[in-house]
C-alpha cells in the first residue's frame, strides 16, 4: 500500500501520514472499444483518484524540453509516420464480386428436350474469400431454385488450395464440386476492381438461354375465323333455364340386371350437362346425388394419335370434334354419356314447351313397366328348444334381435299375483304317483313353475322341478303357439309339461277368490269345479264359526289366543318354514279341513312345538268340531 504525506507537512522521518479519504489505488485504463474497434483514450484520474489536468506536462516531457537542442526550420524534413494498419474484414467489408455464368444439365427422361441450360450468379466475398452460387427463381418452372451453393470457401484442387479472386475471369470455365460453370460476364464493380489489381479481363460473352424455355415462350400462330356466336348473349338469355329429362340406365354388367333411374339436366346458359341419380327408400346404395358433375360432354372425338395418352385428366377442344347440344336429347331415344347409355322416357313441362317452340317437336312420355321384385317367402326354421319361442323368433326377423314387447300394464296390475295348485305326477311307477308338487301360475307373465316339497325318508330329493317358463299346450305349433291359461287349470285336469303329465288335485283358496272376482276370465265349468271342491271346507268353516257363537266364545277370544301363541314363539325364536302346514294338508286326504283328534295330537307331538300345554289344549278346544273332529286352519294360522 502506497502512502503519501499530507500537504503542508514537512517530509521528515516520522511525519508521513496516510490520507483516510482515499479508497481507490488502481491505475486507470488507457484502452477502450468503440463500434467494435480498439482506440487509445487519455485517463482523467490518476492513482488514488487524483484528477489529472490535460495541459500539465509530465516529468518526462519537462526533461525532454530541458535537454532539447533547437534546430533551424529549413533543415532536414521529418519523415511522415507510417499509415495505420487496417484489417481485411474492415477494408473489404460489403465488397462482393459478381459473375454471370451458366451450366448445362442433361434431361434423359423427356422426349422434347435433351439438355437444359440453367443460368446462375457467382458471388465472391472479398472480406473472407468465400463464394456462393445463386440461381434466379422462375415461377412454375418445376425445378427447385434459389441458393445453389451456400456461402463457403470452395476447394480448388486436392492439395488443399481454395479459389481466389485472382482465379476468376470472363470467358473461362470453373469447376465447383464436379459441376462446370461457364463465366460469361461480370458487373462494373468487379471489372473496376480486377483492373485496379492489374488483371487483364477477357472479352465478355453472350448469355446462352434454354432452347426449350424459349420455344415455349413463342406464341403459336393460329388462323381462326371469328365466330358470330355470342356467349354473353346466350348466358343473359337462357340464364337459370334448365332442361330436365328422366332416364333409366340398364346396367347389364350388374349381377341383378337392375334398372336405375336418373335425371339429366341440360343448362341452356352454357350447354353443360349434369346427371343426377334418383334414390329410393331402402335401395341399399350410398346417397351420392351426382353421377356426372356439370360439364361439357363430348359427342364425337377425333382420331387419336399414337402419342395421345389413353388416360387424360381433362379433354380439350383439340381432342373433341363435336359436343353434346340440346338437339341431341329427345324423349324415346337412347343417349351415350361418357360410356353409359341412358334411355330417356320423359321430361318436364318446361322442356316439352321449349322443344315445341325451338324445334317443333312434341314429346310423348314412354311408359316403362318395371316388374316388382319377387317376394321371397320367409321360411321360419323349426324351434330348437332354447329359450322362449318369441325370443328365438326374433333372430329370424332382424340381424340384431330385439326382445319381444311385453304387456307392461298387465305386469303392473298382476304383480305378485300367483295361483297355486297341488298336482300329482301321472306315471306307471307307483312311487312317482305318490309324489306331490306345487304348480304356481304367475298372472303377470303367464309363466308356470313347479316345486316339489321335500319329504323326509322318501328317497327323493325335493326342490325346484321346473323354473318359470311358458308351457305350450299339446298340439301347439311354431306358427300359432298356444300356452296354458288360468281357465285350463281346473280340479282334475291334466297338464302336460314338456312330456310329463300332471293331474291337478287341489288348489289354494286364493284361486277360488280370484276366479269369482274375474268371471270373464274363467269359464263357468272351471268356476263350478272350484266351488264344488271348496264346498266342504267352507261348510266346515261355517260350522266352526256357528259352534263358536253357540258356545258363547267369540272371535275376539280366538284372536287373542293366537297372538299369545305367536308371542311365545318369538321368545323361543321359532321360525316356521311351512312344513307344519304341508303336514296337515297331506294328512287331510279328503280336503275337508278337519282331522281326527288322534291324528291331530300325533302331528303336534311330532313337531315338538315350543308352546305350553295349557295354551295348546285351550287352542284345540276352540278348534274342536264335534267330539272327534278338529279344524286345523285356525290352529295353523297361530304358528305361521
Automatic annotation (TrEMBL):
Show which residues constitute the signal peptide: none
Question: Where does it reside?
Answer: Cytoplasm, Cytoskeleton, Flagellum axoneme
Annotated EF-hand domain residues: 575-610
The record lists the lineage as:
Eukaryota, Metazoa, Chordata, Craniata, Vertebrata
| Record-level GO BP terms | cilium-dependent cell motility; mitotic cytokinesis; mitotic spindle organization
Any one GO MF term held by the record is: alpha-tubulin binding
User: Sorted alphabetically, which keywords does the UniProt record give?
Assistant: Calcium, Cell projection, Cilium, Cytoplasm, Cytoskeleton, Flagellum, Metal-binding, Repeat
Q: Coiled-coil regions in this chain?
A: none
**Major place of residence:** cytoplasm
- Identify the species of origin: Alligator sinensis (Chinese alligator)
- Name listed for the protein in its UniProt record: EF-hand domain-containing protein 1
InterPro entries xrefs: DM10_dom, EF-hand-dom_pair, EF_Hand_1_Ca_BS, EF_hand_dom, EFHC1/EFHC2/EFHB
**One Gene Ontology cellular component:** axoneme
- Gene coding for it: EFHC1
- A Pfam match: DM10_dom
Amino acid at each position: 500500500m502506497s502512502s503519501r504525506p499530507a500537504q503542508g507537512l514537512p517530509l521528515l522521518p516520522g511525519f508521513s501520514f496516510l490520507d483516510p479519504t482515499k479508497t481507490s489505488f488502481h491505475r486507470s485504463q488507457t484502452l477502450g472499444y468503440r463500434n467494435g474497434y480498439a482506440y487509445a483514450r487519455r485517463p482523467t484520474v490518476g492513482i488514488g483518484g487524483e484528477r489529472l489536468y490535460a495541459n500539465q506536462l509530465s516529468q518526462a516531457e519537462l526533461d525532454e524540453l530541458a535537454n532539447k537542442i533547437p534546430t533551424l526550420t529549413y533543415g532536414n524534413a521529418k519523415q511522415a509516420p507510417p499509415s495505420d494498419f487496417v484489417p481485411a474484414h474492415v477494408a473489404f467489408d460489403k465488397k462482393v464480386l459478381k459473375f454471370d455464368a451458366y451450366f448445362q444439365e442433361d434431361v434423359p427422361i423427356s422426349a422434347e428436350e435433351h439438355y437444359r441450360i440453367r443460368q446462375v450468379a457467382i458471388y465472391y466475398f472479398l472480406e473472407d474469400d468465400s463464394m456462393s452460387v445463386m440461381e434466379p427463381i422462375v415461377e412454375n418452372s418445376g425445378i427447385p431454385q434459389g441458393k445453389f451453393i451456400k456461402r463457403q470457401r470452395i476447394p480448388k484442387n486436392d492439395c488443399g488450395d481454395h479459389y481466389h479472386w485472382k482465379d476468376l475471369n470472363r470467358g473461362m470455365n470453373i469447376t465447383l464440386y464436379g459441376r462446370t460453370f461457364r463465366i460469361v460476364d461480370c458487373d462494373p464493380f468487379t471489372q473496376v476492381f480486377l483492373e485496379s489489381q492489374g488483371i487483364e479481363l477477357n472479352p465478355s460473352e453472350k448469355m446462352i438461354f434454354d432452347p426449350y424455355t424459349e420455344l415455349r415462350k413463342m406464341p403459336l400462330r393460329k388462323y381462326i375465323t371469328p365466330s358470330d356466336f355470342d356467349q354473353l348473349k346466350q348466358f343473359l338469355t337462357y340464364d337459370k333455364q334448365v332442361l330436365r329429362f328422366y332416364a333409366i340406365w340398364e346396367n347389364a354388367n350388374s349381377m341383378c340386371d337392375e334398372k336405375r333411374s336418373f335425371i339429366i339436366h341440360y343448362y341452356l346458359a352454357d350447354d353443360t350437362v349434369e346427371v343426377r341419380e334418383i334414390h329410393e327408400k331402402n335401395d341399399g346404395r350410398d346417397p351420392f346425388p351426382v353421377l356426372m358433375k356439370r360439364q361439357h360432354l363430348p359427342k364425337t372425338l377425333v382420331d387419336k394419335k399414337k402419342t395421345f395418352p389413353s388416360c387424360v385428366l381433362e379433354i380439350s377442344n383439340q381432342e373433341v370434334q363435336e359436343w353434346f347440344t340440346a338437339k341431341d336429347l329427345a324423349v324415346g331415344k337412347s343417349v351415350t354419356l361418357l360410356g353409359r347409355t341412358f334411355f330417356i322416357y320423359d321430361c318436364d313441362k318446361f322442356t316439352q314447351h321449349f322443344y315445341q317452340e325451338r324445334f317443333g317437336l312434341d314429346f310423348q312420355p314412354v311408359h316403362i313397366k318395371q316388374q316388382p321384385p319377387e317376394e321371397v317367402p320367409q321360411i321360419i326354421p323349426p324351434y330348437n328348444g332354447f329359450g322362449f319361442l318369441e325370443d328365438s323368433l326374433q333372430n329370424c326377423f332382424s340381424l340384431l334381435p330385439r326382445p319381444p314387447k311385453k304387456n307392461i300394464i298387465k305386469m303392473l296390475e298382476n304383480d305378485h299375483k300367483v295361483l297355486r295348485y297341488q298336482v300329482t305326477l301321472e306315471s306307471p311307477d307307483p312311487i312317482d304317483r305318490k309324489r306331490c308338487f306345487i304348480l304356481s301360475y304367475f298372472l303377470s307373465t303367464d309363466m308356470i313353475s313347479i316345486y316339489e316339497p321335500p319329504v323326509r325318508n322318501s328317497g327323493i330329493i325335493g326342490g325346484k322341478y321346473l323354473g318359470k317358463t311358458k308351457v305350450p299346450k299339446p298340439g301347439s305349433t311354431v306358427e300359432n303357439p298356444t300356452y296354458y291359461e288360468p281357465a285350463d287349470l281346473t280340479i282334475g285336469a291334466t297338464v302336460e309339461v314338456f312330456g310329463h303329465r300332471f293331474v291337478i288335485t287341489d288348489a289354494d283358496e286364493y284361486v277360488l277368490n280370484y276366479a269369482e272376482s274375474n268371471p270373464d276370465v274363467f269359464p263357468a265349468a272351471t268356476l263350478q269345479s272350484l266351488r264344488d271342491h271348496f264346498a266342504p271346507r267352507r261348510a266346515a268353516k261355517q260350522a266352526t264359526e256357528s259352534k263358536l257363537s253357540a258356545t258363547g266364545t267369540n272371535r275376539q277370544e280366538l284372536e287373542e289366543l293366537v297372538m299369545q301363541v305367536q308371542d311365545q314363539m318369538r321368545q323361543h325364536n321359532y321360525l316356521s318354514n311351512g312344513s307344519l302346514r304341508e303336514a296337515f294338508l297331506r294328512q287331510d286326504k279328503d280336503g275337508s279341513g278337519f282331522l281326527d283328534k288322534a291324528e291331530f295330537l300325533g302331528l303336534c307331538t311330532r313337531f315338538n312345538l315350543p308352546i305350553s300345554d295349557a295354551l295348546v289344549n285351550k287352542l284345540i278346544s276352540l278348534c274342536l268340531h264335534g267330539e272327534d273332529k278338529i279344524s286345523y286352519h285356525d290352529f295353523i294360522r297361530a304358528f305361521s
